[in-house]
Each structure stands twice: as structure tokens, then as C-alpha cells.
Amino acid sequence: xxxxxxxxxxxxxxxxxxxxxxxxxxxxxxxxxxxxxxxxxxxxxxxxxxxxxxxxxxxxxxxxxxxxxxxxxxxxxxxxxxxxxxxxxxxxxxxxxxxxxxxxxxxxxx
Length: 110
What we know:
This protein is mostly helical. It has helices at 12-27, 33-45, 47-65, 71-86, 88-92, 99-108; strands spanning 2-4, 8-10.
């Protein structure tokens, strides 16, 4: 255990772990007050924290800028929506809300 002049006795390893776990929240601007200050102290002195913060920022930007669906997924999803809206699948499997239709579809499907 070490002594921190400002906060009294503290466990540096526990402080570092807490700051590390809060780093993604800090990068996203979700921390205030003491938690943000603690992460900032580690960022000021730790190359490991600085590198991780850069990686988290890049990842966050890539996620925000990525399309929700690529073209192939969007086309497949559009086909599925059209099939559901048109009732084609319900007709193929017997529809009507009976379990017999589902059972037949499962048994008869190649």
C-alpha cells in the first residue's frame, strides 16, 4: 500500500484497475468529477493508458461511421421483409395458425 498525499492511504493497483475500467467511459465523455480526474491522472503519466485511449477513440469513430448494414445484408433483409409482408412463407407452411402446418413444413422440407 502506498500513501497518496491528497487522498490518504490507497492501493495504487486498485486505483489503476478502476481507472482502466473507466477509460472507455471517459473516452465517450460519460465520466465527470472524481472518476474523470482519476483517469486523466493516469493518462498524463501512463503510455499504456495513452495508447489504449487512442485505440478506443479510433474504434469509437469507426463504429459511429460504419454503415448499419452492408449491401448484401440490406438486400437479404429487404427480401425477408417482402416475404413476410407478402405472406409467401405462411402459404408454403400451411399457415392458418395450426401446428399441423408447421409440423408438415418441418417434415416435408428437404
